[in-house]
Amino acid sequence: MHAWIDYGLDSNEGRASIQHLNNIHGAFRNHTLNKDFVFILCCFTVDTIQIIEVFGWRHLDDREKRAIFDFYEQVGQRMNLKDRPTSLKEANIIVNSYIDSDTCSRYTKQGQVLTNAIHTLVQKWYGRYLPALLIRILLNAIIYVVGGATFHRKLGLPEPSRFLLYIVYILAAIRRCIMQFVPPRNGIHHLSDNLMKKDYKCPVSQANFLQVGPSKLLQQL
To answer: Does 202 have pLDDT greater than 70?
Structure first.
């Protein structure tokens, strides 16, 4: 996914990444509905904006929010998804309606699997700096702030205390102040290259993207 941002959706790297993603999603077409994929697509738009609004060093203006929506709209087109939202307002409605529906508002085993996967990923990033218990506690509160109470409940997470939420907002405010004084990067920073080299020991390329994904699933593609 980072290759889309680093190189562009229409670059060789971007097209290869989208094609591989579609192949992986194709394995779940019999179990996952179009509306489920559209919901996830909308979450990338809505949650990205929410995260920046809470944890970013400044707020986004309307043009920047529209640019985020347009970017993921282009992703949805390349994924051949139907009934996509035509505006950021519609994307928010889709996310809220999906989360508030009877089938999506209660705890599920799939939600617990997602929670464990998110925790494992964040632990991999910050495990050398913070203990696992502290990461889980902070992540619990951050998911509550970004996703809301209903989505949080679906994941089977305990509701964070007001004190913990206060701590998260304080940390966000401190980060925002620090970022005001951090100079911008002078060179090109390709996060996709860093992740591929770190996790798969290879650079970004069309062939190397085929290594990304669950090993058992990759054997079936």
So the answer is: no
CA torsion sign for 67, 70, 36, 125 is: negative
Compute CA distances 91 → 7, 18, 68, 83, 198, whole Å: 25, 21, 12, 11, 34
* Alpha-carbon span 158 to 137, nearest angstrom: 10
Pure H helices in 27-108:
34-55, 62-78, 88-100
Please name the residues in contact with 162: beta carbons below 8 A apart, sequence gap of 6 or more: none
Q: How far is CA 15 from CA 5, 9, 18, 124, in A?
A: 12, 6, 5, 28
Regarding pTM above 0.85, the answer is: no
Per residue in 101-118, pLDDT tens?
A: 765 555 566 667 767 777
Distance CA 132, CA 115 (A): 14
The distance of Cα 209 from the centroid of its chain, to the nearest Å, equals 19
